[in-house]
Design a protein that fits this description.
Layout (H helix, E strand, L loop, with lengths): L2 E3 L5 H7 L4 E3 H6 L5 E6 L5 H12 L6 E7 L10 H7 E3 H4 L4 E6 L15 H14 E7 L1 H11 L4 E15 L15 E11 L2 H5 L4 E7 L3 E7 L4 E4 L9 H9 L27 H17 L11
């Protein structure tokens, strides 16, 4: 929550330069608070698991957040009961005229398809365009990040020689060490990845409107941003719970001939010893900072003023 300090206190400017959220008394007396509205377009097969992972991170703030789950009319999930979808999810068509403070679009298991061959590509492209004028800040995760970069900028994904699978250290670009999204971060942090495709650094650098905030020599750009945080692209899965990669590894073991142990994940690299969790603290910071600096501090009190 913000610190409320006396008007014109010299410390205010210094603290603001350090990305510490403070307000003066004048603003504090006039400030109205309302719940933030966040919509989640959940494209993952196991909806309940992903819902839980994201809500766990969104809850790491004292702010009140109203969460809405969006679904596509052009796609019917195969791994989630229809009753669950009917009870908790709303078609995009019914949300089109509403505005939201924040939005999360998850990854999807469609990497083997070109974007145009995904059966819901037309609808999701429409949603991406809609979000630019109806949402204060949108976070695109994994495949969704690749899809949005393609829809907005024509940056195509590339298939990797082998699956990027495990926990990989990411370095914050020196230019963005003071970026509010990284407040409280170390200069390096770990990020889970599980994908067969990626985004080339040179393709992103060719678009000066997109900033690469953090990266890895092994996995490429990991967090990108444009329009002062109106769009945030994350190529990995900071939302993963400790057992997600283990579940995926054991699910595929014996069913495919290209399955390898997730890198930097198991204690002593031994699946029998379980995972070594090294990303959760930064995951909580990431979502907390996103909500605070890119939604709460930027969204208008009158949500209809989002444009």
């Amino acid at each position: 929550m913000p610190l409320r300090l006396p008007d014109k206190l010299p410390a205010i400017k210094t603290l603001e330069d350090e990305n510490i959220f403070v307000i003066d008394e004048t603003r504090g007396h006039s400030q109205d608070i309302r719940p933030l509205r966040v919509v989640i377009l959940n494209l993952m097969p196991l909806k309940v698991t992903t819902e839980t992972d994201l809500i766990r991170l969104l809850s790491n703030t004292p702010l009140q957040i109203d969460v809405t789950f969006m679904k596509l009319r052009s796609h019917t999930p195969k791994n989630t009961p229809i009753e669950h979808m009917k009870q908790f999810y709303i078609d995009f068509d019914l949300l089109r005229n509403r505005k939201f403070d924040g939005m999360i679009v998850t990854g999807a298991p469609v990497e083997d398809f070109s974007f145009e061959d995904v059966n819901y590509w037309e609808e999701i492209s429409d949603i991406f365009k809609w979000a630019r004028t109806h949402v204060t800040s949108t976070m695109y995760i994994c495949w969704a990040a690749q899809a949005a970069l393609y829809a907005f900028h024509g940056i195509n994904k590339v298939m990797m020689p082998k699956k990027v699978f495990g926990i990989f250290p990411q370095r914050i670009s020196s230019k963005y060490e003071n970026c509010p999204l990284f407040r409280g971060f170390d200069s390096e942090y770990n990020m889970p990845h599980s994908r067969h495709s990626g985004t080339r650094t040179e393709d992103v650098n060719a678009r000066p409107e997109i900033s690469i905030l953090s990266y890895s020599q092994e996995t490429g750009p990991s967090i990108m941003m444009e329009r002062d945080g109106r769009e945030i692209y994350i190529t990995g899965h900071m939302e993963y719970n400790p057992d997600t990669l283990d579940t995926e590894y054991r699910r595929d073991l014996g069913k495919r001939d290209d399955v390898e142990k997730p890198i930097n994940y198991y204690i002593d690299d031994d699946p029998a010893k379980g995972p070594r969790v090294t990303w959760r603290a930064h995951a909580n910071l990431l979502y907390h900072n996103w909500i605070n600096y890119y939604i709460y501090q930027k969204t208008p009190y009158n949500i209809e003023e989002i444009a």
